[in-house]
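hey so i finaly got around to running the thing on DNA repair protein RecN from Chitinophaga niabensis. pasting the sequence first so u can double check i didnt mess up the copy paste, my clipboard has been acting weird all day
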Amino acid sequence: MLYRLVIQNYAIIDNLEVDFSGNLNVITGETGAGKSILLGALSLILGERADPSVLFDKTRKCVIEGMFKVKTPEVQAFFEAHELDAEDQVILRREISSAGKSRAFINDTPVNLSQLSQLTLLLVDLHQQFDTLELEKSDFQREVIDALAGHQEQLQEYVRKFQQYARLQKDLKECIQQRDSANKESDYNKFLLDELLEADLQEGEMESLEAEQQMLSHSEEIKATLTRVHFQLKEDEQPVLQQLRQLQASLQTLSEFHKDVPGLSARMQSTYVELQDIAAEVDRLNDQVQYDGERMEQLNDRIAVIYRLQKKHNVQSTAELLQIKTQLEQGLENVLNLDGRILELEKQISLLKEELEKTAAAITKKRIAQVAPFEQKVNALLAQVGMPNARIRVSIQQGALQLYGQDTIEFLFDANKSNNFGPIRKVASGGELSRLMLCIKSLVARSVALPTLIFDEIDTGISGEAARQVGIIMKELARGHQVICITHQPQLAGKADAHYFVYKHMEGDKVQTHVRLLSQDERITAIAKMLSGEKPTPAALENAREMVMQ
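ok and heres what it spat out for the 3d tokens, dont ask me to read them lol
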């Protein structure tokens, strides 16, 4: 509930605080006293756009603050979803600077207007005169019937399954699109893959082939060089190895005369052994190198195949070709997997659709069961609030599965017993809609926890007994919900748990709006003035007293 509203520097309000009761709060006052200004200020903390022209004092910022006592699962979920600190009270604040800059806060944490609006939908239901948008919405009409049917858990389970059903349908559509797209290219991709599989490429093969080709192409030069090296090392008139052996022996004779000579001699011996090994390796390589024309032709053919594949796929290495082969294999495998995935999705969708249809049928049955009692109760309430000829009818049309079942629900209205029912948005006037909304909300309030209900002159156009009946409905509604009502009707004002009077007062050279909570005697006087004028008669005072005491 909204237990305090603080307004600073707004319109013709300098500083104002109003503490509301948790039941029926009635606000009265002369036309133009500032009742609409209160709602204008309140609308700012409900997320409305700010206008800097409303500042009372252009040198100071405007501050509107609403304090709520509320603890519902929906509000708790909002705080968790937006990572805000949840407390026992919720304080909404809106600040407007003289430059027109607006800031919003939830429990002193800055938020954007979208977040503020989302939260206030859970806290306040503001219904102004001719504000019929909510009643005209099909979602609201469905929610009314669902609230009366009392099948929220079943409906929530249906919604969860339908969302899963929708996701599976989306996945199926994407899989079919992927398969169709892949099938258009699969024949060509299979040809490319077969070509690469036939080539039977090996990792690093091209490099190995080119190295062997280089060796065979220069085999004569290689063989001549190896022969010469081996000859000079071992078979020349003075072979290098023989000369090295002799030099090592000469050094050995000096070992006794210099301490460093043995080390040099040992190193030369090691070099001799290494050169012997090199000579043997050169001889072995020389024996292996033979020009093979047939092998050369094989190499050229194989290299040509690989070069052609590289050019075709616009790559530079065997490794890249192997990567392309893997991708093609994976792509073709995915096409096969998509077929299996599509079959699995179709099976899941079919089973889930059967469950949804069964649940939707049960929900429809419960909704239909509520139609007659709902029509009867609303029509009785309409007569009670001065619309004896008005009738409401609920149309439930079954169709395809959707988020909240298989039903399209629409409220139809006939204001004159003509049996010519039409959609509410087309046939009901603003005053009729206001009272119809009150009747409907008073029924729904018994089934669901509504937020704070605010009605702005919902009783316009009625008087006498009809106004009294509106007051009775408001009083009943306020037994379980906080209701704030701006009215000109004394019959409604008499039902208030807390009666606030809005008035203007000159302070200095400026007119300012004030609000005060009336005492019992002040209430009687205010209601008497509403009945007979500025100077109430004794009869009006007695009538007002009766209204307050009832």
